[in-house]
C-alpha cells in the first residue's frame, strides 16, 4: 500500500473540556514533524466542542463526526480505517504531546523495522501544573519478556504515546477489540505482540492530564472488567477453559494493584499451575515466566507481613514460598534497609519490612 502521509494522528473526543481539547490539538499542530494528517473523531459531543472543531483552519486536520456516541473503541477503529499514514499515532483529547514527539517516534520506527508499536515515557499534568517526575512505564528488553508480562498486567506503553506500523496492522487485520469499551490498549498490545516488537522510548514525550473526569478515574470498575477480559483470553490460551472466578483470583494476585492480596497455598498452587501448563504447551519463555512469578510472589510475601510479626516469623514465610536463593536476596535487602535506618536515626531502628 502506498501511504499519503508519514503519520496519521488519531484522536477521539467526547464532550472533552474545550480548553483541554484545544491544548491537546495545538500540541499536535505545533510538532517539529510536519508530514502528518490529523484525524479527529467527534463521538457525538453535545458540549459545543463541535463548534471549536469546525473553527480549526489547518489543512492537516480532518474531523469525522459520529451521528451518535459510539464509544472510544469504535471511534478509534473508524479513525484507523480512514488513516492514510505510514504510521498511526494515538493521541488522547486531554493529553499534551511534547513538540518533538512525532519526530522522535517516527525516526525510531524508521530505524527499527521489527517494531510494530513504539511509545514513550510520560509525566503528569495536575491542575494545569506539570509534574516533573517522570513515570516509569514498564520497559522490556525483548518480546519474550514482554509477552510474559501481558499474562499478568498491562505492560504499556501509555496508550496516548503509541505509534503503530500501519502496514502490519493491515497485513494481519488488527483492529481494536470493540468488546473492550475501556482498556482497549491492553487488548491491542496482546494482538500486536504476535507480529512485531513493542518498544518504549526512554524519554518523556507526552504529558498526561490527571483529573476526576478521565476514564481511569471515573470508570475504574469498568476498566478493570475489561482488563480481566483480556487476561481471560491469554489465560485460556495457556490453561484451556478458565472460570471468571479464576480470572478474578489471577487479576487480584498478579497485577500489584491490590495491597491486601497476600501469599497463600492457593496462590502458590495457581502459579504452579501456570508453570506446569507452560511446560506442556511451551508458549512462554520459561526463564521469564519463572522470573516474573518469583517477583509477584515476593510482593505477595511482603504484603503478608504483619507489623507485629517477629523477624523469625517473616523468615518462615519467606522460606515457605520463596526458594532459598531468592529468599536470601530478600533477607539481605531487608538487613540493608535496617542498617540504613540505624545510620540515619543514630540509634537502634525498629525492624520493619
List the keywords.
about 20% strand; 2 domains; disordered C terminus; 9-stranded mixed beta sheet; 14 helices; alpha/beta; single chain; Spore Coat Polysaccharide Biosynthesis Protein SpsA, Chain A; about 350 residues
Helix content: 40-55%
Shape: elongated
- What percent strand? 15-25%
Low-confidence stretches: 348-352
The name of the CATH superfamily of the largest domain reads: Spore Coat Polysaccharide Biosynthesis Protein SpsA, Chain A
CATH hierarchy, class of the largest domain: Alpha Beta
Mean residue pLDDT:
89
> Given the helix and strand composition, which structural class is it?
alpha/beta
Give the second-level CATH assignment, the architecture of the largest domain.
Answer: Alpha-Beta Complex
Number of domains: 2
Provide the succession of SSEs: EHEHEHEEHEEHEHHEHHHHHHH
* Alpha plus pi helix count: 14
At the third CATH level, what is the topology name of the largest domain? Spore Coat Polysaccharide Biosynthesis Protein SpsA, Chain A
End-to-end separation: 57 Å
Radius of gyration: 23 Å
Amino acid at each position: 500500500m502506498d501511504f499519503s502521509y508519514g503519520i496519521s494522528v488519531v484522536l477521539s473526543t467526547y464532550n472533552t473540556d474545550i480548553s483541554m481539547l484545544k491544548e491537546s490539538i495545538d500540541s499536535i499542530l505545533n510538532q517539529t514533524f510536519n508530514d502528518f494528517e490529523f484525524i479527529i473523531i467527534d463521538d457525538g459531543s453535545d458540549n459545543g466542542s463541535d463548534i471549536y472543531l469546525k473553527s480549526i483552519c489547518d489543512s492537516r486536520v480532518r474531523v469525522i463526526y459520529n451521528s451518535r456516541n459510539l464509544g472510544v473503541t469504535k471511534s478509534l477503529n473508524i479513525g484507523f480505517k480512514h488513516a492514510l499514514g505510514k504510521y498511526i499515532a494515538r493521541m488522547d483529547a486531554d493529553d499534551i504531546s511534547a513538540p518533538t514527539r512525532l519526530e522522535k517516534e517516527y525516526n525510531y520506527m524508521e530505524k527499527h523495522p521489527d517494531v510494530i508499536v513504539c511509545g514513550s515515557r510520560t509525566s503528569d499534568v495536575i491542575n494545569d501544573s506539570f509534574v516533573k517526575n517522570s513515570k516509569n512505564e514498564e520497559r522490556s528488553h525483548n518480546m519474550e519478556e514482554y509477552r510474559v508480562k501481558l499474562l499478568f498486567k498491562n505492560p504499556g506503553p501509555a496508550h496516548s504515546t503509541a505509534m503503530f506500523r500501519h502496514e502490519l496492522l493491515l497485513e494481519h487485520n488488527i483492529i481494536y477489540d470493540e468488546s473492550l469499551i475501556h482498556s482497549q490498549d491492553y487488548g491491542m498490545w496482546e494482538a500486536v505482540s504476535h507480529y512485531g516488537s513493542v518498544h518504549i522510548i526512554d524519554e518523556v514525550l507526552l504529558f498526561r492530564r490527571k483529573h476526576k473526569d478521565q476514564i481511569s478515574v471515573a470508570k475504574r470498575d469498568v476498566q478493570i472488567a475489561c482488563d480481566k477480559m483480556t487476561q481471560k483470553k491469554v489465560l485460556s490460551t495457556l490453561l484451556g477453559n478458565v472460570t471468571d472466578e479464576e480470572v478474578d483470583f489471577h487479576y487480584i494476585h498478579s497485577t500489584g494493584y491490590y495491597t491486601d492480596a497476600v501469599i497463600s497455598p492457593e496462590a502458590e498452587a495457581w502459579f504452579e499451575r501456570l508453570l506446569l501448563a507452560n511446560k506442556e504447551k511451551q508458549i512462554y519463555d520459561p526463564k521469564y515466566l519463572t522470573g516474573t512469578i518469583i517477583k509477584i510472589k515476593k510482593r505477595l510475601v511482603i504484603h503478608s507481613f504483619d507489623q507485629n510479626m517477629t523477624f523469625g516469623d517473616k523468615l518462615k514465610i519467606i522460606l515457605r514460598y520463596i526458594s532459598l536463593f531468592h529468599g536470601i536476596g530478600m533477607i539481605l535487602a531487608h538487613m540493608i534497609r535496617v542498617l540504613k535506618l540505624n545510620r540515619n536515626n543514630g540509634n537502634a531502628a525498629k525492624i520493619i519490612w
